[in-house]
Amino acid sequence: MLKIADQTFNSRLLLGTGKYPSFEIQKEAVAVSGTEILTFAVRRMNIFEDSQPNFLEQLDLSKYKLLPNTAGAKTAEEAVRIARLAKASGLCDMIKVEVIGCNKSLLPDPVETLKASEMLLAEGFIVLPYTSDDVVLAKRLEELGVHAIMPGASPIGSGKGILNPMNLKFIIEQSSVPVIIDAGIGSPKDAAFAMELGADGVLLNTAVSGAKDPVKMAVAMKMAIEAGRLGYEAGRIDEKNYAVASSPLTGMVTS
Amino acid sequence: MTIRINGRKVELPDDVQTIHNLLNYYDLEDRIVIVEINQQITLKEQYSSLTLSDGDIVELIHFVGGG
Fold first, then answer.
1. What would the 3-class secondary structure string for A42-98 be?
2. Main-chain phi, psi angles of A127, to 5 degrees
3. Which of A43, B41, A92 is nearest to B19 (CA)?
4. CA A2 to chain centre
5. Does domain A2-234 match CATH 3.20.20.70?
6. Would the CB atoms of B5 and A39 count as touching at under 8 Å?
């Protein structure tokens, strides 16, 4: 069970809702993924243009825990404003703090992320900051009282997978709050690896929505996350530099 | 009255006075929408009582797909 603040979830997959090719595909991918937490963005309504379909509005949001993000914010103050707007919907009390500090890498601004997290905690939000894989920053965020740490595996949407497993492992080992690997996951292997490292969950979007078959990939991610978690709990064998025979070395059939 | 909605200057008919009227005018009453007026978030309970004023800066916010 994944436990964030006082809420528990059976699924360890947090799914983003951006960039699906159609509503039907999104709906099915969300359903088969088994996710219980959906992320989304907060934006101005497009009331002056020809109505663009909003896939998100067509999902039954009451079935999910909603995790809005503060994407678009470049400062702590902007993130807080977006978080307050999201909360005013009356539909959510969780917030993914996302304060981007670099347009090319979309890496988070550590200073503003820390500041925004502190401000939102003071307002009673359940705060899940998206952060880089900085071990000390993760510690500082935890000390503030955030409810989960969400370090990126690699830049958002890059699909490059886990670039620094050592840092992620340090973060996982030191944290007493859930660690959710967020961003950069490309394939089921990456998701399984994150879970084998001991992560409490994985947040991904493009890896599913951008796959050739998003529905099939949603199933694959669900299975990978479950497999990775089971593997972590089971405890893998130590690596050795030389072969160790699996079959008995005695009782050989010889002439 | 002239107000600014989502960054655009808009002339509203005289019968649009409250936030409730505004949401009706844009056919948004059944949608998930958050209303901010002059950087102050409004609550649903205020929609019928809060009146708009000339020059108000209104943001109509909703949720869209994202990660």
1. EEECCCCCCCCCCHHHHCCHHHCEEEEECCCECCHHHHHHHHHHHHHCCCCCEEEEC
2. -105, 125
3. B41
4. 12
5. yes
6. no
What's A105's DSSP letter? Answer: T
- Chain B positions contacting chain A at CB under 8 Å are 5-8, 26, 28, 31-34, 36, 39, 41-44, 59-67
Confidence of residue A58 (pLDDT cuts 50, 70, 90): confident
What is the spatial distance between Cα A91 and Cα A68, in angstroms, rounded to a whole number? 10
Compute the distance between CA of residue A40 and CA of residue A5 in angstroms, rounded to an integer.
Answer: 20
Type of residue at A92: C
Q: Which residue has the tokens 């001991």?
A: A198
Q: CA dist A162 to A3, A68, A188, A195, Å?
A: 23, 24, 12, 11
What the block records as the tokens of B54 is: 């000339």
Domains of chain B (ranges; CATH) run 2-62 (3.10.20.30)
A116: tokens are 């925004």
Tens of pLDDT, residue by residue over A72-87, are: 999 999 999 999 999 9
Biggest distance spanned by C-alpha atoms of chain B = 41
Give the tens place of pLDDT for each residue, A178-194. Answer: 999 999 999 999 999 99
Q: Is A222 a catalytic residue?
A: no
